[in-house]
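Teaching note: in complex prediction, the entire set of molecules is handled at once rather than each chain in isolation. The prompt given to students was simply: 'Predict the structure of this complex.' The entities are:
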Amino acid sequence: MKKILRMFSVVVIISSQLFASGFQINEHGARGMAMAGAYTALALDGSALFYNPAGLSQLDGTQFMLGTTIISPSASFRGVTPAIDEYDMESAIFTPVNFYITHKLNEKWALGFGVNNQYGLGSTWDENWVGKYLAIETEVKTYYFTGGASYKFSDAFSIGITASYVYGDVKILKKNSLSPFDGDATIDLSGDGSSFAYSIGLLFKPSEQFHVGLDFRSGSEFTFQGDATVEAPSQFMSLLPTGNIEAPLTLPYNATIGLAFLPNEKLSISADFQYVGWSSYDKMEVTFTEFKNPDGTPYVSSSIRDYTDSWIARLGGEYSLSTSFDLRAGVLYDSNPVKDEWVEPSLPDADRWGFNIGFGYKFTPNLVLDFAYMFLRFDERTITNSKVDYTNGAAGFNGVYNSSAHLFGINLSYYLN
Amino acid sequence: MKRTNRIVVLLISVLLITFIGCEDRSDLTAPQPPKTGDADFSKFVSIGNSLTAGYQNSSLYEKSQMYSFGKLIADQVGTDYVQPLISEPGIPGKLQIESLSPDLVIGKNPGTGAPTNLDYAAPYNNLGVPGAILYDLVDTTDYQQKSEARKNPFFSVVLRSQQLGNNIIKQALALQPTFITLWIGNNDVLGYATSGGTRGTDPATGKLPTDVPTFTALYNMVGAAITDPTGARKIAAANIPDVKNIPFFTTVGPKLAVGLEAMGVPAIVYQKNGEIVGTGVATTSDLKEGKILLTLTGGGYTSLLGDTSGKYYASLGITPPDGIDITKPFGFDPTNPWPDVFTLDESEIDVTEEATKAFNKIISDVVNLYSASWVLVDVNGFFNELKNAEMTTGGMVINGINFTTAYITGGTFGLDGVHPTTQGYGIIANVFIDAINKNFGASIPNINVSTLPPSIPLAKTSLPKNGNIILKDITWEDIIM
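The expected output is the structure of the full assembly:
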């Protein structure tokens, strides 16, 4: 029976691609979002805490900002090559929230506190679909509780820093083949963990018309802890890995440079370049601390990720139609970090364009509504060299992924001057 | 302000429509059927026994039939292939795993399936009849009578009515086939071998494999009947695997030898052919090296070795024959020997091997006789390679899965130890496809066997049991089909 046991250990390979550009959320304020996130050199509201904490120095009095981004993604897979059967990801709505309070202490110092979800989302596929051994349900949530401060050296130069406590929550549900037996095991891994992150931002204003912003957000290292539960035919219950699990994970750093041109009082044009250090994510490793190998060591399931660093280029504009109404638009291009051979349906990632529009409306000088809409157009991704096996043997998950997403950002800001 | 609002609303609407319409998505074209060269699969018929029917785990059921090697080939070339489908849990109720740990317990599903398309108006494309020997291809006995006489329902399930053709060959030809697979003769050896050399299919004694002159005459008769004089119809004929590569014969002996050695017991005493008392001695090295083979059906009784209370005969509900002393240790004393029906000793192995060799020679002779339209599918050669890979490198890796001939864990054979798993049938379909491609200039793609579902059945509940490999109430008649 030992032999059979070892065989099962081999088949239980735990997914999944948890994070990527698809799971990174950069929309944490509707004003910045409407300008395609080209906001590092502007950072003109409470969301500066996220985009560039040096921007806090520009905010007067005490400001409250509360909002959400409603995200509605869709994805389909057609395959497995040479078949062209279509499978659709189940539709879902995600609502990462953001909340910021800023307060100007004096001419030099300003403080801020905020909550947002910088990484998240999830995907759900039918439990009996062709890729059921790769992904059925994958869900990730992170909560960033951030405090920050900025110091204004002069009107032309300020600096800001933040520190965040990060809480993360992961759930992965998928099936495993019980080859050579006719049946599947459903493996449910869930866990949570916490970590810290920091950021540093700089804001230069060499002239009224030209601003430069720099922002560095650190990565954060997690050790998720949780447990694995298995649903399987009763014959297998004692043979499959369950119990406590541990999985380390490093979220990437982000380095961004932003430029803003303000040719007159009504118009601003901004551009950002964001570099994301995804190459830190080379493998996914889950340790079953209570389930031992025949030699007594804990059973470890490891799978290759081999991400590359990625980048996002952003261009945005804002035009004041009147004293109470600003119109905004932007476009972004986001390169994805997942190599073709490792693309998986838990995260049907692809390079994408984002098209943004939005507006800001001042009900009163102290109460502002910001709205943004973004359409994310993912490039069709045709995989022909997949190293991701969707069977208990070697059969690459080749096929065609199509994805898109609609995002709606809404924020209300209230100023106490 | 109002004008501005209108402009904004209009602009947003236009942009939204534009965005939604600009998803990046192209139409894909469905795969084209492969080139089949000189082979024409428009009317494709398979003739044979359980291996052609898609029998698995001592049963025929829809989930096994969907992956008969003929159906798999038909799917690869994109042609119609109608089969006598049977509902779950199959006929007879399939073998299934009741417990894997701590002991491997195998039982028989107590239910029985039923045929679901008996009304199909023409002969089936799959004319594999479980239990059929070579003679059955040309025998014109009424199917219902034959099913009753042979205690084998499949003659009436698969062949149904004499009006569709009064034997298997006639039914096949009634479909005017453009391509035929022929895989027959296995049971002409296995009938003898699986019964431990106590029963057989030769007309004279009924205790030996079909005799060579009969096999020669019948196979030539079948060859002449199905060969198309114009050569347009192509025929792929498979030969018979060596029993030494089949886990039905190779599982129990070596496992028992390990157990005996651990207890310091050097040998068992077995009943030779035709004897009451035992004069045969099988040493642990005989059992390990396969000089003497024990059948899988004997596996459940190895736990009774040494018993002095007649449990073996009691479990069968029969009186011990005269000359047997049940108070002597079972399997260790000449007067209470290990039964002949579970034992294939050296001379019986010789009989089996010689028959296999002779039959395979006849099959290859007939293929050569009609070499313009026939191709030999060397299934025997493939299983020899598989066994060889197992002995040298631990198995043969096919599409990322390591296959061996080992019982259950090898992935190739199912619970009856004789019939392949779904993936095993995929491997066999590929052996056919390779031969067809090579001989008829076709380019049919191989099946990625890892995409075929693992198929060893699991019972809905598990029963805690003690022992080793336990086959409950399973007779060799179930297996042989």
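Point out the following to students. Chain B touches chain A through 51 residues (CB under 8 Å). Residues 250-344 of chain B form one domain.
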